[in-house]
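Suppose you are handed only these lines of text.
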Amino acid sequence: MNCNIVTIPGDGIGPEIVREACKVLDKVGEVYGHTFQYTKILMGGCSIDEYGVPLTDEALETAKKSDAVLLGAVGGNVGNSKWYDVAPNLRPEAGLLAIRKGLNLFANLRPAYLYNELADACPLKKENIGDGFDMIIVRELTGGLYFGERHTEEADGVLQATDTLTYNENEIRRIAIKAFDIAMKRRKHVISVDKANVLDSSRLWRKVVEEVAKDYPEVKLEHMLVDNCAMQLVMNPGQFDVVLTENMFGDILSDEASMITGSIGMLSSASLNETKFGMYEPSHGSAPDIAGKDLANPIATVLSAAMMLRYSFDMDKEADAIEAAVQQVLTDGYRTGDIYSEGCKKVGTIEMGDLIAARI
Amino acid sequence: MNCNIVTIPGDGIGPEIVREACKVLDKVGEVYGHTFQYTKILMGGCSIDEYGVPLTDEALETAKKSDAVLLGAVGGNVGNSKWYDVAPNLRPEAGLLAIRKGLNLFANLRPAYLYNELADACPLKKENIGDGFDMIIVRELTGGLYFGERHTEEADGVLQATDTLTYNENEIRRIAIKAFDIAMKRRKHVISVDKANVLDSSRLWRKVVEEVAKDYPEVKLEHMLVDNCAMQLVMNPGQFDVVLTENMFGDILSDEASMITGSIGMLSSASLNETKFGMYEPSHGSAPDIAGKDLANPIATVLSAAMMLRYSFDMDKEADAIEAAVQQVLTDGYRTGDIYSEGCKKVGTIEMGDLIAARI
Ligand SMILES: CC(C)[C@H](C(=O)O)[C@@H](O)C(=O)O
Ligand SMILES: CC(C)[C@H](C(=O)O)[C@@H](O)C(=O)O
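From them, the structure of the protein bound to 3-isopropylmalic acid can be written out as follows.
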């Protein structure tokens, strides 16, 4: 197969980790007979430096024409960089929001998985983890507070700012369907998270999710309030299989869940539209402090490339091969600094990429 | 001193735990020469049963005329109770929102503290807790998504629901001042939590908090994005002293933080207005499953009564006495079921109240 991939190295450690992911993809291509072609576009701080905006129309068009997008990370240290002394819609993160909306990437999948080998890095006690932690957050990504009307106005000398949280039935239905489809391939358990005791949008959310659930009689559906979910994730994370939630709650809960794995450097993500098209990126940020030092953990990006093969190219076997190679590298005791523990072999970004590629 | 306290026993375990808190207050009265007079009002499910609404105007007026309110808990099992098959504004929790707004209780203080004696109950590993965990969340309680305009409408056969998040400078300023005042009596460190990379209301929040901070040169101010905060609470909770945040973020983060103490049955809260008036309640819910069985932990309510003495009645010495009595009971090895561990003495709700009162 011939695949046109747009890469967005972005800022900070982005270029280094994307490079390693492409290395692994190329090895997959070699072994399984595919050609991956890469077209690079700029987004985030590097695009601001070059064009004055975090995402140009041309870059967005190039991404639209590709088969899939592989993103590193965008942004710098907020409040500490030339990129942030400008209007919000000109900052690096605005590029991320613009590409999500521009490519209609409404379904954000964020797996959180605790590797046995990394149990030491997990902040929770063993008895709280129980039989293991393997969940996926299905976050709505193009609606809610992120994209609602907002404005700041002055009345009688007092500034007042407003953001709007809106969802319609169709937006809720399509993300719910994604979550149930994914649950069918997993442990068949969806926990839908909302704040239905307060929000109208959550009450509509609950109603539509209930309707969608009727088409999946095998899947067990539970509703959980967002505050309770934030609590349960710490107390009893093993109970979660698929968590379905709206944009802002998903942002908060996925970061919380990621920490339970002890290593945000291991977590991949996919952002999908209604077709097979998607954007794939690590769950972590651009880590400007360690950029260019061969210290970054490329595994989250490598695993994001595996998600790309699975969701955009139907290459399940090849995706399995990448995931198995990552597992093997961990079993063999190799660790980047962020996941290092006593007795393991410490390696840099590039060597980690080599080690994974060698195991494909 | 003569204090007129309105009690709201509420639903589930509410009546039992309020009874124990009053027992402890009465002992304080005896020892320190105060008179606490109680007037009971109905709120939540019990008010629905009696009057068809979760809070009557008369009940609210009675609360307004009191010196302080002591609340147990309201509500039942959502989706599992006659109280929930009605419009949202007629459900038990609506009473809680109505009294918060009606009494103008804009400042919700939620301490989260890990007792040495309960370290076993904490889900985090010792190395992640570090030198201890003792923080307080200062949550704005009468604005934001909770009280913004909301509506559900149909257009072309598609339902669409909207909630609104609004804050003005004055609302932000008064809660920020509370947080900084509290920080001055603690470790002088405020972390203000927002989502300023997305929300207009968060950008205004940040601006006003910065302005208020100028009046507190001794207090260190940091800003943290809400997703990062959800992560940091799990990874490194010891870094937090005072967390200042808006209503919905405060709801989520305070539940998460409470779990880090391992025992939501220990956590008190205060909701204050601009004067010394306040409503005091445990952070936990009405736990209908264990209601009436002498199993509930009354400590959160007892500690809420201590907060009442401190914030509404300026009785610092008396509040200290209650807190010391609770600490002593734990040191003496007494535990209700929720905080029980091997080797301790298990006691019920009433005995726990007696034990604390006896140590005043
Ligand atoms: C950078 C930011 C706008 C973004 C978000 O809030 O969605 C990030 O936190 C994420 O989760 O991808
Ligand atoms: C019961 C509910 C409306 C309430 C809230 O969301 O504020 C509760 O979760 C709380 O935190 O006091």
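What can we learn from it? Chain A touches chain B through 61 residues (CB under 8 Å). The mean pLDDT of chain A is 95.
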